[in-house]
Write a structure and sequence with these properties.
Number of helices: 15
Strand order of the largest sheet: 2-1-3-4-5-6
Number of strands: 12
Number of domains: 2
Helix content: 40-55%
CATH class of the largest domain: Alpha Beta
Distance between the termini: 15 Å
Largest sheet: 6 strands, parallel
CATH superfamily of the largest domain: Glycogen Phosphorylase B
Radius of gyration: 21 Å
Order of helices and strands: EHEHEHEHHEHEHEHEHEHEHEHEHHH
Structural class: alpha/beta
Length: 368
């Protein structure tokens, strides 16, 4: 059987220059490494961002122009039957939207996969971006929605004019691997609680809220270890604050930076609680990884988190920036081992049931 050529615009590096690994990076690499490659001849165009925070606007513009020219070259000389484009929020939407338009004008089948929670706030703040996004959808054969939340959002944004274009393909991870990880586990110390955060250490990720909540929480009967896995412009600030303000011997902060592979999985294996205090999200990989690992999770109710967490059933959700609610949630789980176990078990079951790579492959095969 002859393979179909598909031009795939996304992120394909092992890790960015700053050693970070984002959700889009995993999504793209896992698709090309799946059984889809038995049917598809992938043509790659990598658009991984150089750094976070990003470089100057001039530098980004030059890179974007170069990529658009390369995109046109690949369209003309490799003649793909379809174009699959993953996009982050911010300026990425303009670049990828331009690519969608070019592909459509050349008669190509176009699949657009927008990712990134801040997209909602950006569209709300800019009528131009709102109209531009609608134009992208107009020129797309399909728009991939990471969950029910995003399909409803896009549907409302489009005044329910093109519901047939909106296809739900829930975000995915290698559930088999995390099932093995969960089953391995570690021997729990009942008097010691390990809390985990994974991601960018930036204000909009809510890590300052998490730090404050831990300082005021009533958890003095336990030794609590808080691990911030990641990097960003708040890492040094919080590291210094942890030295100055942590006068309690029961609360310890650790900032190991970006952790990958077996080292990251070691943290997931020993974690009792995972916290994602972010102000905006798409459908976060870090939360899915923690849930699949059988960890009791606390997260803000943003983006498609509500597709993952059923509040007080398989985790806890709270409103962004509500430090009091976050504090209460931490106290609730730290002091209740039985509830942590129940939440973790039900969380893992939901991820295994709805977010496997295999189910995503079936959906992509259907539209590609």
């Amino acid at each position: 059987m002859k393979k179909k050529p598909v031009l795939f615009v996304g992120s394909f590096l092992e890790k960015a220059k700053d050693r970070s690994v984002g959700g889009q990076m995993y999504a793209c690499k896992s698709l090309v490494g799946s059984s889809l490659s038995n049917y598809i001849d992938w043509i790659y165009l990598d658009t991984t961002g150089k750094s976070v925070p990003p470089p100057s606007m001039y530098s980004r513009l030059v890179s974007a122009i170069f990529r658009v020219f390369k995109f046109c070259y690949l369209l003309i000389f490799y003649s793909p039957s379809s174009v699959l484009i993953f996009s982050a929020n911010g300026p990425s939407i303009y670049e990828k939207g331009f690519m969608i338009t070019i592909a459509k004008l050349l008669g190509k089948r176009t699949i657009f996969a927008p990712r990134g929670g801040p997209l909602i706030d950006e569209i709300a703040a800019s009528n131009f971006k709102k109209q531009y996004f609608k134009l992208i959808v107009k020129y797309s054969n399909y728009v991939i929605c990471q969950g029910t939340f995003w399909k409803e959002y896009f549907n409302d944004l489009l005044n329910r004019n093109s519901p047939e274009k909106l296809v739900i393909i829930p975000n995915w991870i290698d559930v088999d691997f995390y099932m093995r990880l969960k089953n391995e586990g570690v021997q729990e110390n009942l008097n010691e609680i390990n809390i985990l955060f994974m991601g960018w250490m930036q204000v909009e990720k809510g890590i300052n809220d998490l730090f404050e909540a831990l300082l005021v929480s009533e958890i003095k009967n336990y030794k609590v270890n808080m691990y911030f896995l990641g990097d960003g412009n708040q890492r040094e600030l919080l590291t210094n604050r942890s030295i100055l303000e942590n006068k309690s011997t029961n609360l310890n902060f650790f900032f190991p930076g970006w952790i990958h592979g077996a080292d990251k999985f070691a943290y997931l294996t020993k974690a009792d609680i995972f916290v994602l205090p972010s102000y905006s999200e798409g459908m976060p990989n870090s939360l899915m990884e923690a849930m699949a690992s059988g960890i009791a999770c606390i997260s803000t109710n943003v983006g498609a988190v509500s597709d993952l967490i059923d509040d007080q059933v398989n985790g806890i959700m709270y409103k962004p920036k509500d430090i009091k609610a976050l504090t209460f949630a931490i106290e609730q789980l730290v002091g209740n081992r039985e509830q942590r176990i129940i939440f973790g078990k039900k969380a893992a079951e939901k991820i295994y049931r709805n977010h496997s790579l295999e189910s995503a492959v079936i959906s992509f095969k259907r539209i590609l």
